[in-house]
Design goal:
Layout (H helix, E strand, L loop, with lengths): L3 E2 L2 H21 L5 E7 L3 H16 L3 E7 L5 H13 L5 E4 L9 H7 L11 H8 L8 H12 L8 E5 L6 H10 L3 E5 L6 H6 L3 E4 L17 E4 L3 E3 L2 H7 L4 H10 L2 E3 L4 H7 L2 E2 L6 H21 L2
Parallel strand pairs: 1-11, 2-3, 2-4, 5-6, 5-7, 7-8, 8-11
Antiparallel strand pairs: 9-10
Helix pairs in contact: 1-12, 2-12, 6-7, 6-12
The protein binds NADP nicotinamide-adenine-dinucleotide phosphate.
The site of NADP nicotinamide-adenine-dinucleotide phosphate has 23 residues, from helix 12.
Length: 306
């Protein structure tokens, strides 16, 4: 079987266009959605993500700012900043870029964000509401995956789904959303026995573990839909040869850049076994940012009553 691509980049562009239209409408009624991003420390990947988020927000007409702090920032300073943003009527969404520098209590910081401005949906209040099926901001990556599945008409009702990974950011909310959409969901993780056999039962397999090309042909049911959330940087010739065997273009890109991105799913195996799949890059990543912008608009509407 040669799988077809689920085009996350295209769906993300559609969401961004719709979001920009919604922002323009809100502006006519006197409300410009505002997004504030808190970035603490020098994590290189976080710097890249935050730049893309701010750029995407500005392109959609959202008023966006990134508040940068050195790795030496204290918890008290971050809490004070969050308190200020909570009180600012022009700020609709507050995003704390993770990971935070060592020594800072991530839970304490996330729980300080006003749930009405919790654009990532990480506050326990919103997590609880999501689990109960009540309106709540939905974490951007699983929200993006659900949007892709809906717009690409992937059948979920009654579908046997396996979510590989149980993080608060991806795996757990993904499983909640799929269950709500009437899929029959199993969550697998590092202690799961016989992972390949379990994953092979899945008509829909979502991989979110952060292990390069870990999901190989023996994990993938023939004809499954495979969503690859993973983004992993590989930087050895052996890894490149394992992930992209015989691919001269990838070998040349590796020679030029010294590293390549690969998902959690083996890029060659998935093409041979799945019916439809998301590529890395260009699959789930763009959807995450698109949903962040849409969440900002949703929060603006809800909080300002527009
Ligand atoms: P995480 O917090 O590190 O969680 C990883 C999960 O995978 C854990 O539940 C862990 O199990 C499980 N796991 C790790 N190794 C495993 C193994 N060998 N076998 C089975 N399960 C294993 O990661 P995350 O934040 O969810 O991110 C996962 C991946 O998605 C990363 O590559 C990340 O970069 C990517 N990501 C992408 C986007 C995007 O926009 N595209 C957004 C967020 C994350 P235990 O619970 O048992 O430890």
């Amino acid at each position: 079987m040669t799988a077809t691509i689920l085009d996350g980049a295209k769906v993300a562009a559609d969401i961004r266009r719709e979001t920009a239209e919604a922002v323009a409408e809100l502006a006519l009624r006197g409300a410009v959605p505002g997004l504030s991003v808190i970035l603490a420390g020098e994590d290189p990947a976080s710097q890249v993500y935050v730049r893309s988020k701010e750029k995407g927000a500005r392109e959609a007409g959202i008023r966006a700012e990134t508040l940068r702090f050195p790795a030496t920032v204290t918890e008290a300073m971050l809490l004070a900043e969050i308190g200020r943003l909570n009180a600012d009527p022009e700020v609709d969404g507050i995003l704390v870029q993770l990971p935070l520098p060592g020594g800072i209590g991530t839970s304490r910081i996330l729980e300080a964000v006003d749930p009405a401005k919790d654009v990532d949906g990480f506050h326990p209040f919103n997590v609880g509401r999501l689990v109960q099926g009540k309106p709540a901001p939905v974490p951007c990556t699983p929200a993006g995956v659900m949007e892709l599945l809906r717009r690409e008409n992937v059948l979920l009702r009654g579908t046997r789904a396996v979510v590989l990974g149980r993080s608060d950011i991806v795996g757990k909310p993904m499983a909640t959303l799929l269950t709500k959409a009437d899929a029959t969901v199993t969550v697998a993780h590092s202690k799961t026995r016989d992972l390949p056999a379990l994953c092979r039962e899945a008509e829909l397999l979502v991989a979110a573990i952060g292990r390069p090309a870990f999901v190989t042909a023996d994990f993938i049911r023939e004809g499954a839909v495979v969503i690859d959330v993973g983004v992993n940087r590989i930087d050895t010739a052996a890894e490149v040869a394992r992930c992209f065997p015989g691919d001269e273009a990838k070998a040349a890109a590796f020679a030029a850049k010294g590293s390549l991105l690969v998902g959690d799913v083996h890029p060659v195996d998935v093409r041979e076994r799945a019916s439809r799949y998301t590529p890395v890059p260009g699959g789930v990543g763009p959807l995450t940012i698109a949903r962040l912008l849409a969440n900002t608009v949703d929060l603006c509407r809800a909080r300002r009553g527009r």
